[in-house]
Amino acid sequence: MRIKSKELVQSYVFTTAKYDFTAYEKRIMYRLVELSQALLEGHTLQGFSIQQTLLDDLKEVTMPLSAFLKDDDDDNYSEVKKALKSLRQKTIEYEDEKMWKVIGIIELPKFFKKGYVRFAIHPEIYQAILSFAKGWRKIELKVAMSLNSRHAMTLYELMSRQKTPLTYKIEDLKSMFKVEGMYAQPADFIKRVIEPAKQELNKKSPYSFTYTKGKEGKKVVKLTFTPKYIPANADPILAKKEAQKSVSIRWDFSPQILDLLKNKVGITEKGIKNNYDTFKEGALWIEDFLGFLTQKAGKARQAKNPIGFVINAIKGEIESAKLNGKKND
C-alpha cells in the first residue's frame, strides 16, 4: 500500500510513552492513530475498519497487512507478526485511590494470510489515543513510516512542529529510549543513539534538530534539542497546503464572494483556507461563480450542514463543467 501524504494528530501520551517499541510496532501505532483520527474527522480509510464488539466493550480493528510495511519493497511479514505479539504483551498500568488495573495495548491479534490483520483494543486505550488533554503532536505519516530507527521515530515525534528547544536529562532520555543500564558514558549514548537518529532525520525528515550539552563540572548531564526545519525534506503537497493557509484569501477572492461565504453560508476564514483548492477551482470552472454561490447559499439554509452542502455543490458543478469542457477565461 502506498502511503499518502497526510498529517495525523498523535496523542502526547503515546509520543512520550516509555515503551520499547520496535519500528514495526511504531508503524502499527501510527496506523491506529491515523484510523482513529480519520473517524474523528468523519472520514473512512480503504481497507480499514473499527467495530464495537460485545466482549468487554472492546473495539475490533481491521487493517491491511501492507499498512505496516515501510514501503512497497518491504515484504517482512514475519516482523509484523512479531510486532503484533509484542504489542499484545505490553501493558499500561492504571491506579487511583479506588483500584489498580493493567490493560494491554492490543488484544486478540490475528494475522490473516489473505492480506490483513485484526486485533482488539480496550476502550480506555482508544480514549487515550483520542485524548488531547496532555497536548498533541502533528506528524507526517509518510515520513514517520519511512524511518528505520525507533530512536529516530521518537525524536521525530518530539521535534515535529516544535517551536522551542526541549531539554532532557541524560538519564531521562535513556529511560525514554529504553536503554537504561547501557552506555555508562554520556558520550557513548550520544554517539550510539542521538547522532544516528539525528543523521536519519536530516536525511529524510523536514523536522530534525541540533543539540547542545549541559554539564555539571566536566560531566554531561543533559541535552537541549533545538528544532531544525529542513524545507528540502518537506512533502510538497503538505507544503502547498501550509502555504495556502498563510496567504491572505483576499488575494484570490472578491470581497463579495468572501462576504457571501462568511455571512450567508457561515464559513469562517479558516474554513475558506482549508477548502481553498475547491473555491479556487470553482472560480475557475463555474461561470458566474458569485451568482452560483448566491443561489446555493439560499438553499443551504434548509440543509442540516449548510457548509457541506455548498462545498459539495461546488464540487459537483466543477465536475459537470469539466465534462462539458467549459472553463472560465
Structure explained in plain terms:
The chain folds into 3 domains: 1-144, Arc Repressor Mutant, subunit A (Orthogonal Bundle); 147-234, Winged helix-like DNA-binding domain superfamily/Winged helix DNA-binding domain (Arc Repressor Mutant, subunit A), CATH 1.10.10; 247-324, no CATH class. 47% of the residues lie in helices and 20% in strands. The protein is built from 14 helices and 11 strands. The strands form 4 sheets. A 4-stranded antiparallel β-sheet has the order 2-3-7-6. Strands 9-11-10 form a 3-stranded antiparallel β-sheet. A two-stranded antiparallel ribbon has the order 1-8. The longest helix is centred in the middle third of the chain and has 19 residues, at 186-204. It starts with 6 loop residues before the first strand and ends in a 5-residue tail after the last helix.
And the CATH topology of the largest domain? Arc Repressor Mutant, subunit A
Share of helix, binned: 40-55%
Number of β-strand runs: 11
Query: DSSP helix count?
Result: 14
Return the CATH class of the largest domain: Mainly Alpha
- Percent range for β-strand residues: 15-25%
In CATH, the architecture of the largest domain is Orthogonal Bundle
Q: How are the strands of the biggest sheet laid out side by side? A: 2-3-7-6
Cα(first) to Cα(last) distance is 39 Å
The H-level CATH homologous superfamily of the largest domain, spelled out, is Winged helix-like DNA-binding domain superfamily/Winged helix DNA-binding domain
**Overall outline:** globular
* Low-confidence residue ranges: none
Structural class: alpha+beta
Rg result: 24 Å
Secondary-structure element order, N to C: EHHEEHEEEEHEHHEHHEEHHHHHH
> What is the domain tally?
3
Average residue pLDDT: 82
Main beta sheet, described?
4 strands, antiparallel
